[in-house]
Amino acid sequence: MSASDGRAPSGLADPLEAGRNTHDPDGVEEALALVSGRTLRPDPARGPERSPEAADGGGHRAVSWPQARSIAARAGRGGPVRTQRVALDQAVGRVLGEPLTALCDLPPFDTSAMDGWAVAGPGPWTVSGGDSVLAGQSAPPPLEDGTAVRIATGARIPPEATAVIRSEHARTDAGQRLLHAERSVSQGQDIRSRGQECRLGDRLLPAACAVTPAVLGLAAAAGYDELAVVRRPRVEVLVLGDELLTAGRPHDGLIRDALGPMLGPWLGALGAEVVAARRLGDDAGALRRAVTASEAEVIITTGGTAAGPVDHVHPVLRETDATLLIDSVAVRPGHPMLLAALAASGGGPEGVSPARYLVGLPGNPLAAVSGLLTLAEPLLRGLVGLPAPAPYRMPVRVPVQGHPYDTRLVPFVHHDDGLTPVRYSGPAMLRGIAAADGLAVVPPGGARPGDELEVLELPWVPGAFSADV
Known about the structure:
The protein has 469 residues and is α/β, with parallel strands linked by helices. It folds into four domains: 15-81 and 232-383, 3-Layer(aba) Sandwich (Molybdenum Cofactor Biosythetic Enzyme, Chain A); 83-105 and 197-230, Molybdopterin biosynthesis moea protein, domain 2, CATH 3.90.105.10; 111-192, Beta Complex (Molybdopterin biosynthesis moeA protein, domain 3), CATH 2.170.190; 393-457, Beta-clip. Helix content is 19%, strand content 26%. The strands form seven sheets. Strands 1, 20, 23, 24, 25, 26 and 27 form a seven-stranded mixed β-sheet that branches. The protein has a six-stranded mixed β-sheet with strand order 8-5-7-6-10-9, with no helix packed on it. Strands 17-14-18-22-21-19 form a six-stranded mixed β-sheet, sandwiched between helices. The protein is elongated, with a radius of gyration of 30 Å.
């Protein structure tokens, strides 16, 4: 694949160049306005509006890496979040589509926190001759003042009981008829009161929380059989390139397709539902038909984003009346990546909202990973209503070479005292990222030992790091 020259192709609207002003420094509002068909009031400080053709001229520059992430996230948040109801056993890993509210009090009744004795009033207590009170039984009879009864953890507290004494803190006399406490007993001790954790109708969690196993347990305890979750964005992967093999070893100028096997699981880890993954080769007609026929919310293409003789993504976007939101990002590897809006539909907060997107990834494998984390990940987060994770930074242990003007994304491994970049991190290499814990965001000019760098984690637990990587 040929390298991008960083220019927007003629005929595609470039909202970013026109959107550079003090009120919209990232060009986000201009971008979304063009997608939705809205007209923004011109900024007098900018002078006359520029036509799309003028904006697409030689003055076009790649957007910065932070700008690209912001635009992708805001684009994903431009439309309504769709929800569905699923059984609890299908909800782990999904995102709550509405707040989780308690359907009952928790606990639903007063229960014993310990195995021991339920007692009423001051002691010593006469031991009741009845059966022990066990969990799962119906309401026990009231406990008379000065009496005690055996009780199990989780069992309902008998009416009129004032405390629970742990088994190890009590003793009975030789006849097993009188109970003595070996420690002081306070009112209500070791009793879990009804509603101690929550009351009916209490808001337990807001919408947009990830459904973890703990959330699943809380929902079950609160009375849920199913949950309202956000529908996974449907994603279709289109692998481009006549040089790619799907099986066997590389030969005769052909290489194995590394992105096809990688993208589906990676996108799934980012919360997407991959509905199809197809290899189209370098066929402009096939790409155009696939883009126009797809019903996915997001199309991911690999390769073809530059300006070479078989780079067909830009021409197809022109022919399908797409709106280019991002064309090239000032990041290495992966600067020829792009983001385009393919369609719009009614129902958004201002009358219309973006409905379908295309993320064009470069063909080199590590460059494609850069595109995934730069554009696809924030776009998908926006589509499911998830906020961006709070950024965090860690010091780097060794000098890291930077690009003179662009951000670099460098695979690294964690150590107790900081980050160490891995070897084999060229744009076409996957050996380094396969052993990495994440990518470090290296600003233009590089970093010195001790400098703190922003960290992008990978959406899975990495394997053990080998010392020779």
